[in-house]
Design a protein that fits this description.
The complex is a heterodimer of chains A (112) and B (115). By secondary structure, chain A is an all-beta fold. Chain A has one domain: Immunoglobulin-like. In chain A, strand 9 and strand 10 form a beta hairpin. The radius of gyration of chain A is 13 Å and the shape is globular. Helices cover 0% and strands 50% of the residues of chain B. In chain B, strands 2, 4, 5, 6, 9, 10 and 11 form a 7-stranded mixed beta sheet that branches. Chain B has a 4-stranded antiparallel beta sheet with strand order 1-3-8-7, with no helix packed on it. The chains are: A mainly beta (112), B mainly beta (115). Chains A and B meet through strand 5 and strand 10 of A and strand 4, strand 5 and strand 10 of B.
């Protein structure tokens, strides 16, 4: 119930392509879903986040799509660039708690 | 831009020894967290801390672990008697408030190796 399942584990995309990373959850009490980007040797950094009252949120080349009924959400990276090569984590938070439940991470490599 | 800092970047210790991992959160932040990431696995929540008290802790955070804010700037994680399975990257995070819209800012991590 507390898990967030993330796929794929790794992803290789050509420069200019679309990268898609998917997450699914069971606990309907989760109400905040951030995506974090982590470069080697660095801590995770917030990329974009969404609440379940919207179905989509876009910031630049990054879009979160949210399907509340399916309990799934995904990150789309449009026009993927080599500089986007990193590990991406989805996460979820229950209201009134002080912790994020992270997915297992997706290692993205964008080929030049 | 303000950032969370952590020291040391890498700590090697022998099983059974005590270690203290140090963090300096962003100065106006009030909530502090420790997470860990075993190599190749997901980031796992350990503990959150607010107003000099633990707000929430996971089942991983047993009696071997403790946290402290010894002064106005540092936040520490102590592992009393390290085990091999404590080998992981430990991330400190801080936030201005709790929950959305307050982002948790993560430090670069301390890699703990227990031999």
């Amino acid at each position: 119930q507390q898990q967030v399942k993330q796929s794929p584990q790794s992803l290789i995309v050509q420069k200019g392509g679309i990268s898609i990373i998917n997450c699914a959850y069971e606990n309907t009490a989760f109400d905040y879903f951030p995506w974090y980007q982590q470069f080697p040797g660095k801590g995770p950094a917030l990329l974009i986040a969404i609440r379940p009252d919207v179905s989509e949120k876009k910031e630049g080349r990054f879009t979160i799509s949210f399907n509340k009924s399916a309990k799934q959400f995904s990150l789309h990276i449009m026009d993927s660039q080599p500089g986007d090569s990193a590990t991406y984590f989805c996460a979820a938070e229950r209201p009134g708690t002080y912790k994020y439940i992270f997915g297992t991470g997706t290692r993205l490599k964008v080929l030049a | 831009e303000p950032e969370v800092t952590q020291t040391p970047s890498h700590q090697v210790t022998q099983m059974g020894q005590e270690v203290i991992l140090r963090c300096v959160p962003i100065s106006n932040h009030l909530y502090f967290y420790w997470y860990r990431q075993i190599l190749g696995q997901k980031v796992e929540f350990l503990v959150s801390f607010y107003n000099n008290e633990i707000s929430e802790k996971s089942e991983i955070f047993d009696d071997q672990f403790s946290v402290e804010r010894p002064d106005g700037s540092n936040f520490t994680l102590k592992i009393r008697s390290t085990k091999l399975e404590d080998s992981a990257m430990y991330f400190c995070a801080s936030s201005e408030g709790a929950g959305d819209p307050y982002e948790q800012y993560f430090g670069p991590g301390t890699r703990l190796t227990v031999t």
